[in-house]
Amino acid sequence: MSTESTGRGEPDRTLRLLWRDRLGEPVGSRGPKQRASVDAVVDTAIALADEEGMEALSMRRIAERLGLKPMSVYTYVPGKAELIDLMVDRVAGEQPLPELRGSLRERLEQLAQLTWDELLRHPWLLSIDTSRPPLGPNVSDRWEWSLRAIEGLGLSDLDMDQVITLVVGFVSGPARAYVDAERLHRSTTETDEEWWERNAPVLGEIMDPTRYPISGRVGQAAGEEYGAPSDPERAFRFGLARVIDGIEAYVASAR
Fold first, then answer.
1. Which residues lie closer than 8 Å to 19 by C-beta, 6 or more apart?
2. CA distance 11 to 13
3. Beta carbons of 169 and 53 less than 8 angstroms apart
4. What pLDDT sits at residue 6?
5. For residue 1, which of 73, 79, 99 has the smallest C-alpha distance?
6. Rounded to a whole number, what is the distance in angstroms from the first to the last CA of the chain?
7. Between vectors from CA 104 to CA 102 and to CA 109, what angle results, nearest 5°?
């Protein structure tokens, strides 16, 4: 993230870019008269990452799509790290934040579902370092909205931070498994059932039921139910319910 590169120069420009709708869009100081905009660069970068992944993201590829010279992209965005910050903040504002409603469980489910949908829509988010999230308007609005879901429950401010971190952090695991499974399905014509049938004879030889009695039983039950090695969306629903069970118990004890 660009926050790790602030020592190299231009943190004010990065923040101004993130908050350009309120502060005014910065004007490039180098190169020819601007033919695009910061928004166009960010939108192009998001489209490229959606289609080909973060490994395909480069200033040159963005320039090609916009019909610009490669170096001219830097008149809009200082560098790739700053660009990623802008991309993260942009997608954080794609979905309108719904009105928080219902019980604590329902509100946390809203938060988790919003995160799940976002990660599946933009899988490259799973490869982004979020240890220092960009402090842009959409990320800031999302954080405020998330905290409102648990405001007034008697939790300390630190507990509130930890609860939201727990819920959001949990979602990334099953979302990554879902994305990986979808990627595998797109890269092969072999179905999960066909894979199991092809490998069943060998698995039957090596999976000695006297050595693996529990995993053999559980694996068979899961395979018959899922029709696949796993069911990431089901894991998301089940795991989220158990996480919220724990949060509800913690909130009750805090009271």
1. 136, 137
2. 5
3. no
4. 45
5. 79
6. 38
7. 85
The two tokens of residue 61 are: 């590829």
pLDDT at site 91: 97
Distances (CA, A) of 3 to 22, 46, 125: 20, 20, 17
Q: Provide the CA 24 distance to its chain's centre, in angstroms.
A: 28
Q: Which residues contact 84 (CB under 8 A, 6 or more apart)?
A: 1, 2, 128
Q: What is the pLDDT of residue 207?
A: 81
Q: Is the dihedral of CA 186, 51, 123, 53 positive or negative?
A: positive
Residue spans of the chain under pLDDT 50: 2-7, 28-32
DSSP 3-state of 147: helix
Position 146, amino acid: S
pLDDT in tens, 68-124: 998 999 999 999 999 999 999 999 999 999 999 999 999 999 999 999 999 999 999
- For 72, residues 6+ apart whose C-beta sits below 8 A from its C-beta are 31, 32, 35, 63
Q: What is the DSSP letter of 93?
A: T
The C-alpha angle 187, 46, 68, rounded to 5 degrees, equals 110
Q: According to the model, what pLDDT value does residue 20 have?
A: 87
Largest CA distance in the chain: 74
pTM of the model: 0.86
Residue 51 has φ and ψ, to the nearest 5°, of: -80, -40
